[in-house]
Amino acid sequence: MDKNIPFQEIKDLQLEILKKIDKFCVENGIQYFLGYGTLLGSIRHKGYIPWDDDIDIAMPREDYMRFVGLCNNHFEDLEVLSYIVDRRVPCTFTKISNRKTNLINTGSAITFPRGVHIDVFPIDGLPDSVKESNRHIKKVKLFKNLLLIKHLNYKQINQLVQTKYSRSVKGLFVYIAKLFTILFSFKMLVDKIERLTIKYKYNDSSYVANIVHGYGERERVEKSLFNRIKKSEFEGHPFPIPEGYDRWLTKVYGDYMQLPPEKKRVPHHNIVAFWK
Question: Are 97 and 114 in contact (CB under 8 A)?
Fold first, then answer.
């Protein structure tokens, strides 16, 4: 029988992956930085947010593509789970996964085999116009929602409608969207999202965002925020963060130094991990 991995050991394994990725990126001249809860944890807690359960990093699109290509099959104990290298992976970003473990996320509708991992997000270019930028982000979000709905079975669709849209016309649209996804394969939807996200080149854009799996329109920030990198402590180790981290975190989280209400200090994912 597979041996359950305690929560703290899951976090230790994630940190070991991050340290290996950091060394790999330095050796290959790849720009990356801590992102989201990991960046916030570094600034506010000098490590994990106490109730957090994952590690996120981000990269400009060009670095992201190089990273995935070079990293694939580089580590004996780590696996690159990315649609870029394996069209069977139904995910719009990349996971670097420990090969010796299995992980189950009961809170995620999009499931595929993976172990304890960290998430790697591309930062993509956006139009200069706020209106055009928001339209572009919403279009990507439409196909992301279709991908999610396609993954849900009808029992899950019913639960979603009952919990979120029970007295809203949006519930009807969820059922219609589920029927509509019959016309598309998973590959077609992920392919469409990939094509949309690279429409505006990072290097040619003044504004950028993580649009494959981010916080929508409020992610839009000046590319200049990521031009300069400095180090910040995370679990006793220095890792790169953008010098413009304050504006990025403020756009995404608001007053990020303010602790959330105690009832919200819970893990974002329902994960269970096992040794193979």
Answer: yes
